[in-house]
Amino acid sequence: MMRRGEAARPFQRLVQLPARPRKGALPMPANEILQEAKKLHKVSDSLDVLAEQHAPISEALSILSGNVRNSATLLEVLVALKLTPAPGYDPRNN
């Protein structure tokens, strides 16, 4: 059952991420997360190539490719907002 005012704001429920870690706390694995994002971008590129080669399932592969690419981008945003990115990391040079 919806509470009062929920119908007018269906998309205002956002995930709240924890605050930045305190100094002295264990460092978060920013580099490792960025490496996984890079791998996901490569998987997305591979799915795009397969989509071009296999017409019967081209649309499905393209959709999957976009979803994987979006996941990679979300990981990069998470690192940028909540962790310290690796020195010299440039997301444009994925």
What are the SSEs and their pairings?
Layout: H1 30-53, H2 58-82
For this entry, give a set of tags.
single chain; 94 residues; mainly alpha; 2 helices; elongated
Structure description:
This protein has 94 residues and is an all-alpha fold. The chain has a domain at 30-83. It is built from 2 helices and no strands. The chain has helices at residues 30-53, 58-82. Helix 1 (30-53) packs antiparallel against helix 2 (58-82). The N and C termini lie far apart (45 Å).
How is this structure best summarized?
By secondary structure, the protein is mainly alpha-helical. The protein has helices at 30-53, 58-82.
State the total count of DSSP E strands. Answer: 0
SS field, number of helical segments: 2
Beta-strand residue fraction: under 5%
Taking pLDDT < 50 over at least 5 consecutive residues as the criterion, the unreliable ranges are: none
Chain-averaged pLDDT: 79
Radius of gyration: 18 Å
Share of helical residues:
40-55%
Class derived from helix and strand content: mainly alpha
* Principal-axes shape call: elongated
The main β sheet shows up as:
none
- What sequence of helices (H) and strands (E) makes up the elements? HH
In whole angstroms, the N-to-C terminal distance is: 45 Å
